[in-house]
User: What shape does this take?
Amino acid sequence: MEAEKNRITELFHIEHPIIQAGMVWVSGYKLAAAVSNAGGLGLIGAGSMYPDVLREHIQKCKKATKKPFGVNIPLFYPDLQEILDIILEENVRIVFTSAGNPKLYTRFLKDHGITVVHVVSSVKFALKSQEAGVDAIVAEGFEAGGHNGREETTTFTLIPMVREKISIPLIAAGGIATGKGMLAAMALGADAVQIGSRFVASSESSAHINFKQEVIKTQDGDTHLTLKELTPVRLIKNEFYNSVQELYKQQGGVDQLEKLLGRGRAKKGMFEGDLVEGELEIGQIAGLIHEIKPAADIVNEIINEFRATQRSISKIHI
Assistant: This one.
């Protein structure tokens, strides 16, 4: 398939401006390698990995693909320095950071020759990221499953506002799973798209099959952004979600929310397949996901639809 060329494909040395999000409990080496082999940029999600597990996934990814791939690191990670040491020791060349201050580690990573991208949910933090020296920014709207802004700014509002203020490459995320969505995001100023939810329902995703099947059953209105007092996430409405909402009705505080959430709630739902008591994070776009298929097929489907829609729009006269 012919490659697209723009600032993002040149920055990462990839064929298509499609980045697979580094999601917790979903984005292991199999998914990252599959997306990279298909011409996009695969990311290993370090947020749900102990340091030794991350090292293993990086090493296995190197064997599974000769193409570029990266690692996504939430900056609140408790073993962050150990994770950074592994990144350097394993010669990872691309790092996406999220959920923290980009000034803390951007210069450190770039001084070691690493391409750095930071995930934001507002114009304010996009500007802070650019000032910190990142190579590109992911701007993610509240349609997404994770790393949501408390302001609930939608992707197609956020992208043009960020584009207006920054000069570095911009990646759109949140509510994008199709070629049409990719074209729309790029028309608004994005250089590429980062896609999470669609790759959850892929053959190579490490998500539990129960969770994958729940994703493809999800329809409009079946998800909700919640837990803003802790870390805003979009959840499929299940028994755990109902418990959260009941606590809100009782005006429960942060301590009570933390106690209800406990430890390992996302692992229970997304990785172990507990659809009742697990935390099931997914974006609103799940309503357009109807089938589990290989990651390469997903990439090809998105690119083919992107190009077909480009041709179709070029014929419209007003």
Q: What stands out?
A: The chain has 14 helices and ten strands. The chain has two domains: 7-206+287-314, 219-285.
